[in-house]
Amino acid sequence: FSLGNELLKLHCEANTLYWAKALLTMTYDFIDSAILSTNSPPPFKIPCLCFIEAGLALAHLQLMKGPTKPKGGTICGIYLLEERIEGGSAAFTKYIHNMDCGPSMSADMHGYDIAEFLAFTQHVQYSKTGGLVNCPCFGML
């Protein structure tokens, strides 16, 4: 990719992560509000999930003009810096298929409670945004 195309693609990915985090926060706010409006806590544990931290980094080429201080340079690299996840790819579990809103595992499997919670978050996001948004990218966390 050219630097311009790379910047557009990585900016889109970073922006998507930003919105996904906002939607997850909205879901937890909805849950907190619902819990506060009742007399008893829910009869199940609510998973505490999060998205990774990430940001764009632009590398600049420093141009020297004479023996004095460097002048501002042009962009020579664009990077999406992401939080390191311990365990690498082995730490990822497929909870929801991207083409289905339900859990992709059976009820007796480890992590089914998280898969159900992620299906619930999609419902809340869809409902709270008037059907404009849901985050189907919970396929692997």
Write the layout of secondary structure elements.
Blueprint: H1 3-36, E1 54-60, E2 75-82, H2 112-128
In short:
This protein has helices spanning 3-36, 112-128; strands at 54-60, 75-82. It is of the alpha+beta class and 141 residues long.
Strand order of the largest sheet: 1-2
Q: Roughly what percent helix?
A: 25-40%
Q: Give the SSE order as H and E letters.
A: HEEH
Average pLDDT number? 85
β-strand percent reads 5-15%
Write down how many β-strands occur, each being a DSSP E stretch of 2 or more residues. Answer: 2
Largest β-sheet summary: 2 strands, antiparallel
The number of helical segments is 2
The first-to-last residue Cα distance is 28 Å
Structure overview:
By secondary structure, this protein is α+β, with helices and mostly antiparallel strands. Helix content is 36%, strand content 11%. The protein contains 2 helices and 2 strands; from the N terminus they run αββα. The protein has helices at residues 3-36, 112-128; strands at residues 54-60, 75-82. It has a two-stranded antiparallel sheet. The longest helix has 34 residues, at 3-36. The protein is elongated. The model has no long low-confidence stretch (mean pLDDT 85).
Features:
single chain; about 140 residues; alpha+beta; two-stranded antiparallel sheet; 2 helices; 2 strands; about 35% helix
